[in-house]
Design goal:
Helix content of chain A: 25-40%
Structural class of chain A: alpha+beta
CATH topology of the largest domain in chain A: D-amino Acid Aminotransferase, Chain A, domain 1
Radius of gyration of chain A: 20 Å
Order of helices and strands of chain A: EHEEHEHHHEHEEHEEEEEHEEHHEHEEH
Distance between the termini of chain A: 30 Å
CATH superfamily of the largest domain in chain A: ATP-grasp fold, B domain
Shape of chain A: globular
Oligomer: homodimer
Strand content of chain A: 25-35%
Number of strands of chain A: 17
Largest sheet of chain A: 9 strands, antiparallel
Number of domains of chain A: 3
Number of helices of chain A: 12
Chain lengths: 382, 382
């Protein structure tokens, strides 16, 4: 029961969080079964599929995954590249481990993009205090000092607005490999989610506008209702360079700073992405289904958007389930995670016939369930 | 892992087929976990949730279900009523066992509907050979002789067109409690799927047109594009009588013969229904999600239809997965079942902006993948 062995389409997933959970759920209607590898005893994906308890560098666990699965993928980018490579010698691993390697180091990623002619904000490597000073002279202020590795949801970042911010930022982050990036002016943040199949065929989802709160994605909207076409083409063209350079397979998400007609990469994620959760109800084929289609070498599904779609993350805690389900326009997704401040524990999707209706629905939700200033909520979980 | 214990919303399901499977999948985003009770060692729902192996009258198994779950429901109507009643003394059971009792005996069902003033075809009980002759005199020909219990997908039925058909039908079916029903003329078969919450609130899905093949549902379409409004109101009014009389909770499906403006009940099913599978993509809230919302006492979701929707069942076998997924308009659902003639092993949904587009999509699918005359297909499963 719920064992993946002897099943024709077995998907191994490194990581057992909500992304792994939603990948497993998307695979079931296609006849797939998933096994997640995760060091946590009760990762939320383990509620919906098989779980192999183990660290990502536990080669016995990796061996079990390789032996039990037909394809292996990952749901977050901080898996050791060596583990992905070791697996790739034994079982097909998609996206390619090289994508993991590029995406998990901000400096490697920026240099890689720069070589492809994909615009990125000015940046400089910072490995010690003198390098920080020279980087500041080169980049100027404002700037953002970031760890090169293991940053997510705004963690491992310090904004430098004035010279007075430099020393505290160094105290917090110094001693690890860092990168200083110019704090570029931008109108908004957008993301493009692409899927590339094993045969090189590619589909793109609608360019999505994202609003962050304290470094965490809070709201997304698609499609853009202004100046979208030219911008979309540009984003698709840049993204195609990345996909082709990596001989990529699966979902790739790229977050951009948009300043007028200009796009600069903020970061890329070689996996399904929070800003694409709206595709479950808002697109003909979800990013999750298209990712599993891609890694199994199956034809990709249509990424067409079904109206005007909005997404609100449930962060820290969520209102009681009956209250959420009483909102007729809301499509509620909880992840089975224990509420904790600054933790993504669910999301809500709104699909409307017009952009105005979408805004009205999202506003009504936020009026009814205002998020706390710290990103959590007062209400207890039901 | 994948155990339902200690989880706040645990759903027990009597039966582990595709309906239980899709109920379990619908419950996950709401934070539920399901456990199916099924006597088969590998029912297809066991691929996606916990499975308690046991007969439906195995009281140790029923006890485990009652102890492990907060609510118990069923995915097919041939569960022993005594088991449902025994469970209902220990844990909330929805729909109410009385609904099961009514629906699992064609004679009891017809008498129940008749008392409510809900029109049914003329019928008569047939317990022995002399009763068959008097029933034939009363009902006339053509007529259908059916077993009162355990019939599904056209099994346990014999059509009597002429006097010559009577003896062979009796040879096949005689010795069991039977019912003779008039073979009523009808334009088409339609079904109405209703959901009633614990608080009595009710939503209806769009009236659905069904085409059967050899007694099995083959195609469904919603909404009706002709004369629908008055007919819909009539069907909703009759269905409300049934829901109220049973103090019903959950999804109830009623199949009707439509003859002009007249509706006669063919049969009712106290569960999610094949003719409502289109609601997964074709309605704001699927019948599966609304059923779990209802039985847990949660607010019901919108049943609004999202365009013009069609459903084609995959019976016996299905085309290779890559071929099916290459059809951009098809939303493919496989059930993880072993192909076998006359077995429902999946379905495909089409959602279109117009009725014409829906027809074109369905026709293209059937042209590409013509079903065999016996309801199975030539192509091997991939």
């Amino acid at each position: 029961m719920l064992r993946v062995c002897n099943h024709p389409m077995r998907l191994g997933i490194l990581g057992g969080g909500q992304l792994g959970r939603m990948l497993a759920l998307a695979g079931y209607p296609l006849g797939m079964r998933a096994m997640v590898l995760d060091p946590a005893p009760e990762p939320c994906a383990a509620q919906v599929c098989e779980h192999r308890l183990g660290e990502f560098d536990d080669y016995r666990a990796l061996y079990d995954l390789a032996r039990s699965c037909d394809v292996v993928t990952y749901e977050f980018e901080n898996v050791p590249v060596e583990s992905a490579r070791w697996l790739a010698d034994r079982v097909p691993v998609f996206p390619p481990p090289r994508a993991l390697e590029v995406a998990q180091d901000r400096l490697v990623e920026k240099r890689f993009l720069q070589e492809l002619g994909v615009p990125v904000p000015p940046f400089a490597a910072v490995d010690n205090r003198p390098q920080l000073d020279s980087a500041l002279r080169e980049i100027g202020l404002p700037a953002v000092l970031k760890t090169r590795r293991f940053g997510y949801d705004g963690k491992g970042q310090q904004v430098l607005n004035s010279a007075a911010d430099v020393e505290p930022a160094w105290t917090t982050l110094g001693g690890r490999p860092l990168i200083l990036e110019a704090f570029v002016p931008f109108d908004r943040e957008v993301s493009l989610i692409a899927v590339r199949g094993r045969d090189g065929s590619t589909v793109f989802y609608a360019l999505t506008e994202n609003q962050h709160c304290q470094g965490m994605l809070f709201q997304s909207r698609a499609p853009l209702t202004d100046t979208a076409e030219e911008l979309t083409e540009r984003a698709q063209e840049y993204t195609t360079r990345v996909l082709d350079a990596l001989d990529y397979v699966g979902v790739l998400a790229i977050e951009w700073f948009q300043d007028g007609g200009q796009l600069l990469v903020n970061e890329m994620a070689p996996r399904v992405h929070n800003s694409g959760h709206w595709t479950i109800e808002g697109a003909v084929t979800s990013q999750f289904e298209n990712h599993v289609r891609a890694v199994f070498g199956l034809p990709l599904g249509s990424s067409k958007v079904c109206g005007y779609v909005g997404l609100i993350n449930l962060i820290g805690s969520h209102p009681p389930l009956p209250a959420m389900l009483a909102v007729p326009t809301a499509r509620v997704h909880t992840y089975g995670k224990v509420p904790r401040p600054r933790r993504k524990i669910g999301h809500v999707t709104f699909v409307a016939a017009t952009a105005e209706e979408r805004e009205a629905n999202m506003t009504a939700w936020l009026d009814r369930f205002p998020p706390e200033a710290d990103g959590s909520r007062q209400e207890p979980q039901p």
